[in-house]
Design goal:
Blueprint: E1 12-14, E2 19-21, H1 23-40, E3 49-53, H2 58-69, E4 73-80, H3 84-101, E5 105-109, H4 110-114, H5 118-124, H6 129-147, E6 152-154, H7 159-171, H8 175-180, E7 184-185, E8 193-195, H9 203-212, H10 229-243, H11 247-272, E9 275-276, E10 283-284, H12 290-299, H13 304-309
Parallel strand pairs: 3-4, 3-6, 4-5, 6-8
Antiparallel strand pairs: 1-2, 7-8, 9-10
Helix pairs in contact: 1-9, 2-9, 5-6, 5-12, 7-10, 7-11
This protein binds Fe4 H S5 and zinc ion.
Zinc ion (ZN) binds near residues 280, 282 and 289.
Length: about 300
């Protein structure tokens, strides 16, 4: 097996591209895929500062490394979720990664800063752990980007993640979610722009990138992920991909080119009449945003303004 670019011996093959690469050319390939995603979808404006949400896993640390190597002004954000040893370990990986390179890492801790952790929040709100967790992360990421003056927030969602989310949304015809499923969510009042620069790279490519680039990342999966629907969709797509390489990318990029536009209106309607949360100012259709409602339930404590209003 020879490298497609330089004809030296290859270390990895990528069936959907019908190509194999040596170590250096594979790194170049990963950089190129991220550069293309950023250019094709106009993710970042010149001179803009990027905040990268890092979990200590391969995708987010790989993304931070690639963005820096491409010359972007990118800092990290780690959010402690309070998921036992898993959070302790993932935090250590993120901190060590940042410290070894001297790159700034912002930290927010759900238990320390907001008084609850994901397991408690999910039980109290009777939500699946990943639902309480996802809602908390979206809220905290957005708040941190805006409060610290970053124009854009980048997350490590890769091709496998996005294809699995798309499959879930199509299976249930979630038209609002389909309208929002895009590698770029534009900024709006109270929302930072959100981008997913890894959409052109698969999970296996990210794992290989980290190994070849000497990035130490947490290999353990989050203990709360077991049994969630997303994993089932990923497995189903992997089975299809195994038989017909390239299907996953065709599914996602075909949607982005020919399907997404048709659902955009549904998402815009949902965003159109949002007010500000009475507690934290985040955009919300109601009085209190979903994160503040979760927080009230999880901590069992009224928020300061609610306490003031009590008779
Ligand atoms: S951290 Fe949170 Fe994930 Fe764990 S609880 Fe689910 S969403 S699986 S990326
Ligand atoms: Zn709020």
């Amino acid at each position: 097996m020879k490298c497609r670019r330089c004809r030296e011996p290859a270390v990895i093959d990528i069936r959907r591209h019908n190509a194999a690469f040596c170590r250096d050319c594979f790194r170049h390939h990963c950089h190129e895929q991220v550069r293309r995603a950023i250019d094709d979808f106009d993710m970042v404006e010149p001179g803009e500062r990027i905040l990268v949400a890092v979990s200590g896993g391969k995708d987010s640390l790989g993304l931070w490394q690639i963005l820096r190597e491409l010359g972007y002004d990118a800092d990290g954000l780690y959010v402690g979720l309070g998921i036992g040893d898993y959070s302790d370990m993932s935090g250590s990986y993120a901190r060590e990664f940042a410290a070894a390179r001297g790159w700034p890492l912002l930290e927010v801790d759900l238990p320390g800063d907001f008084g609850f952790d994901v397991p408690t929040g999910s039980k109290a709100a009777r939500r699946a752990p990943c639902s309480a967790c996802g809602l908390s992360k979206r809220h905290v990421f957005n708040e941190a980007a805006i409060a610290n003056g970053y124009g854009v927030l980048a997350t490590g969602h890769n091709l496998d993640d996005e294809a699995a989310v798309l499959l879930g949304n199509v299976l249930r015809w979630e038209t609002g979610y389909l309208g929002r499923q895009h590698p770029v969510l534009p900024a709006a009042r109270g929302f930072a722009r959100k981008v997913k620069p890894l959409v052109r790279l698969g999970e296996r490519e990210l794992a290989a990138y980290c190994v070849l680039a000497d990035i130490d990342y947490i290999v353990e999966e989050c203990p709360m992920a077991a049994g969630n629907r997303h994993l089932g969709y990923k497995e189903a797509l992997n089975t299809i991909e195994e038989r017909s390489p390239g299907t996953k990318a065709a599914f996602l990029f075909g949607f982005l080119e020919r399907g997404h536009e048709r659902f955009r209106g549904d998402a815009e309607d949902e965003r159109a009449d949002l007010g500000a949360c009475r507690e934290c100012g985040a955009p919300t259709p109601g009085d209190l945003c979903a994160f503040c409602r979760l927080r009230v339930r999880a901590t069992g404590q009224p928020l300061p303004f609610l306490a003031e209003e009590a008779p």
